[in-house]
Amino acid sequence: MGHQNVHDMLIGLAFVFVIEGLIYALFPGGARKMAAQVQNIPESSLRIAGVVALAIGVVGVWLLRG
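RESULT FIELD:
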């Protein structure tokens, strides 16, 4: 993995923290409610949602990076 790829990956990870921080800073009550509701969702549904999010992310990076 080249230096630029590692740099891009770290920037992407930093953006994840920015977005996560914004959610907790702007909507702390909503974040708390969402976290409580996640406990009631079956694992299979969470796994499917995770795979879909992963696929969307991979396709997005592929389209943006060419």
